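Final report, Chapter 2: Outcomes

The project's central promise was a pipeline that accepts a single protein chain and returns its three-dimensional structure in a standardized token representation, suitable for archiving and comparison. That pipeline is now operational. To close this chapter, we reproduce one record exactly as it appears in the project archive, with the input sequence first and the structure output second.
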Amino acid sequence: MANSYYAIPHATFIASLSAALTDKYGAGVTIHYTSSSILIFSCAAMFGTGAIKFNWDNATNKLYLYRGTGWTSGTSVDGSVTMLSPIVNAAWTDNSHVILGDTYLLYLGSAGASYIGECMLLIGKLSNNDYVFMFMCKGSTSSSTVVSYDITAASAIYPIVVGYNLSNAGKLYRQPLYFALPGNLAVVNADTTLAYIADLYSVSYASTNNLIQANAIFSATGLAYYGGSTWVYTSIYAAF
């Protein structure tokens, strides 16, 4: 399967996201529970065992995310762990954007306002079969935020990216999206090559107007790990 793009209207956020998952993965995804504000599902290709809960607050357009060991009944996942509690309350634009790859979900939302800009959420499987979660938020007049975990290793991780100011005669650099463990140890495959998420890249581009691009290519600017203690703006890129 190739990467697939879906526009997710905020007025029907849960229903639209559920439909996108079913359209992309078919029998590979199990929708356990849906309501106007809650979606609980399992998808082995994306995060192995267990279940994920999306909670969309229709009143404030805030997104909450939880993971658990599974689902039994009702509106919660078993052994619930909070992955994301929003740090902002922004006037979001009408649509969020979702790319579904063979092994990942990439969500982006934009407020169209300089004080928040873009927020990106990634759930996916690395080439070493570890499952990861990452949230990046860029704001030109507020602190930018990165939250990133290796779910399999139960460890914080950091995205290793190319900076937005790297170019060669106007040509952008692109590399697979790699990750590092605390202590600057790269996440690797069994053969010691760098682990990555298939069909997802870091590219040396940063939007100057806090906009998301979604037209044949898909990118969003955020703050990510570069090396040592340096943090830089980059974009996450997926073709579809």
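Archive annotation: The two ends are 10 Å apart (CA to CA).
This record, like all others produced under the grant, will remain available to the consortium after the project formally closes.
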